[in-house]
Write a structure and sequence with these properties.
mainly beta; single chain; 31 strands; 2 domains; disordered N terminus; 3 helices; five-stranded antiparallel sheet; Neuraminidase; 446 residues; four-stranded antiparallel sheet
Length: 446
């Protein structure tokens, strides 16, 4: 329905503009047959062009000592790793690869300027891990042929754990290596199917591993780093989806799951038992424990928007709720808590945020005051401040369930009845529509 309406509106605009002389028109591509479609004026394409011009920045990692960070952003079409030295500072490119950096980059927790990133090779989707140091050539850490996952750093030694299909090209086994010595790579655990490493324990004796199960379910395992022996942490009979799993400094495990609930909650694992920390019915998207283990940053899904709260880790009671506008906090992947990144000092937590007026930019919240700091200002081709604020509307479906939608009303300069464009989001497993920048569709909002 949305596609039909868009085509109708473009045709109407083309007809209106075609009445003006003289006109330059967009040539019909040789692979396209146009029947009953008026010529599209070049002026219309020029008018639409700014609505496709926007960039994004994504949080990757804090510096282990200083108040600066690595972000992923693009100035040439391919995402590269950039250093942001202070809030609002111009990002400094640290990589410049043709394919771009297709995975996260992480500073070593041991200090210094060395970081590890993941990048495809030749567009073959064989992602490799590399170590980068300023002024030096990148050092390949993996075999150059297999598909390798995102790395997880050990807190003391700086070793990394990651998954790789190098053994047979199919199963994702777990590996450990020291980034300072690529020859130290060894298989930690031979697996069947897809697994990934999520978090090292504080003493580096175990790793939380996530097993991908049929039907989008997952299971959490504890893997002994010395022997590779694994112990299941989650219920084998009542499977569910687990993500954002990570250790606290005292060895407690926190994770997000829909275990025993229709909606995801934060769960805490102690003495061999899981216990919910957040309320049933209050949907959780992400969670991350602070470096001292006292504060839990939690992203809730409320009214189709992400709401960040800082909770007391012991009681689960709210300490702060920063004043974010309607929008979404984005996760980089299901790996650990990527999407919420605590500074090693514990003074603030950073995240990637998007709304109707920005694609994605990096922000941080002061853990003591709740003050919000914007770190990046990704350009948008239009005056996004003129776009209407989204509204959340609800109605009952035929089965009595409550359905939500995001409504964008026309600006005040358009009085009277207006056409309605309905864009139906897929389901049931897909995330539902959220308040977000509309890109080229923002042309209709303006």
């Amino acid at each position: 329905m949305a596609t039909v309406l868009r085509v109708w509106l473009l045709v109407a605009a083309a007809v209106s503009l075609s009445a003006q002389e003289p006109q330059q028109f967009i040539p019909v591509p040789t692979a396209v047959t146009a029947e009953g479609l008026p010529p599209i004026p070049a002026a219309l394409a020029q008018k639409l062009a700014p609505y496709a011009q926007f960039r994004r920045a994504q949080m990757l990692a804090w510096h282990p000592e200083r108040r600066q960070m690595l972000v992923s952003t693009s100035t040439t079409g391919a995402a590269q790793v950039h250093l942001v030295g202070a809030p609002g500072a111009t990002p400094k490119a640290l990589t410049a690869f043709k394919e771009g950096v297709t995975g996260a980059a992480f500073y070593s927790p041991l200090g210094g300027e060395s970081f590890v990133y993941r990048k495809d090779v030749g567009g073959r989707e064989t992602h490799q891990l590399w170590r980068m140091e300023p002024g030096a050539e990148p050092i390949l850490l993996t075999d150059g042929r297999s598909l390798n996952g995102l790395p997880v750093f050990a807190p003391k030694t700086g070793r990394i754990a990651f998954e790789s299909n190098r053994r047979n090209g199919k199963d994702r086994d777990l590996y450990v290596l020291d980034p300072k010595d690529p020859s130290s790579s060894r298989m930690l655990m031979e697996a069947t199917g897809s697994w990934y490493a999520a978090s090292w324990s504080p003493d580096e004796r175990t790793i939380i591993a996530v097993e991908m199960l049929p039907g989008n379910d997952t299971a959490l395992w504890s893997v002994d780093v010395a022997t590779g022996q694994r112990t299941r942490l989650t219920d084998e009979k009542n499977t569910s989806i687990w993500w954002s799993a990570h250790y606290a400094p005292d060895g407690t495990i926190y994770a997000v799951s829909d275990y025993q609930s229709d909606l995801a909650r934060v769960w805490r694992y102690r003495a061999g038992k899981w216990a919910p920390l957040t309320k049933d019915g209050d949907a959780v998207e992400l969670a991350a424990i602070s470096p001292d283990g006292n504060t839990l940053a939690v992203v809730f899904d409320r009214d189709a928007s992400s709401v960040l709260e800082l909770l007391d880790a012991a009681s689960g009671k709210r300490r702060l709720r920063p004043a974010l506008p309607a929008g979404q906090i984005f996760s980089f992947s299901n790996l650990s808590s990527l999407g919420l990144e605590w500074h090693p000092s514990g003074s603030e937590v950073a995240f990637t945020f998007g709304s109707v007026r920005m694609f994605q930019d990096v922000f941080s919240v002061d853990a003591a005051s709740g003050d919000i700091t914007r770190w990046t200002q990704s350009p948008v081709g239009i005056d996004a401040a003129q776009l209407p604020e989204p509204e959340i509307v609800r109605w009952k479906s035929f089965d009595g369930r409550l359905i939500s939608g995001v409504l964008y009303r026309p600006p005040a300069k358009f009085p009277g009845p207006r056409p309605v464009m309905i864009n139906i989001h897929g389901g049931p497993n897909d995330e539902r529509e959220r308040p977000r920048i509309q890109g080229r569709s923002a042309y209709y909002l303006n």
